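Technical annex, item 7. During the second reporting period the consortium partners agreed on a shared format for inverse folding records so that results from different sites could be compared directly. Each record opens with the tokenized structure and is followed by the designed sequence. A conforming record, contributed by the partner at site C, is shown below for reference.
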């Protein structure tokens, strides 16, 4: 124990990366200001996994930790699609999840947005064509933004959310 505390006192901040902190600070500042303008200060997101490996969800979990702290910017992950402005859709949209994703979308207040997360929904990632996979495009719903990566790291997700709010587009 004494050895541990000695080491901690000698190297108090071993993960500090000033460059990364500054970039993240700027992104978060801009994100907070655009959420205030476009969503009256509060953007509610319903996360839907449509057959993912769970790594995308693990990266999203990190967004709530004290370092990224998205709640402070006005972004909330909600438990019901009825409370959501946007759906963050991960996974390949498997046959079994297809109707559940559609159901969740139709319960969202309109206009609802879909943001696809990771390479899976657009079938660009690890799990490509398979008899049990349909992909997000088969839903025939407007996709407002896509966040690439397998999985995208938290900073990329935050950047993606900023791009979505600044310039939502259907494709
Ligand atoms: S995009 Fe990659 S990390 Fe995300 S669910 Fe698919 S395989 Fe997993």
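Designed sequence (site C submission):
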């Amino acid at each position: 124990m004494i050895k541990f505390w000695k080491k901690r006192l000698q190297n108090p901040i071993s993960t500090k990366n000033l460059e990364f902190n500054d970039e993240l600070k700027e992104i978060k500042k801009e994100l907070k200001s655009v959420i205030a303008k476009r969503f009256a200060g509060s953007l509610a997101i319903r996360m839907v996994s449509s057959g993912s490996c769970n790594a995308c969800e693990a990266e999203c979990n990190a967004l709530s930790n004290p370092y990224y702290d998205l709640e402070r910017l006005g972004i909330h992950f909600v438990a019901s699609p009825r409370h959501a402005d946007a759906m963050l859709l991960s996974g390949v949209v498997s046959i079994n999840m297809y109707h559940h994703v559609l159901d969740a979308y139709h319960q969202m207040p309109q206009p609802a947005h879909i943001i696809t997360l990771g390479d899976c929904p657009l079938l660009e990632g690890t799990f490509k064509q398979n008899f049990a996979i349909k992909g997000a495009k088969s839903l025939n719903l407007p996709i407002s933004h896509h966040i690439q990566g397998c999985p995208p790291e938290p900073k990329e997700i935050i950047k993606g959310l900023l791009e979505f709010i600044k310039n939502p587009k259907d494709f």
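The two ends are 56 Å apart (CA to CA). Residues 52-53, 55-56, 90-91, 118-120, 125-126, 150-151 surround iron/sulfur cluster (CB under 6 Å). All partners now use this format for quarterly exchanges.
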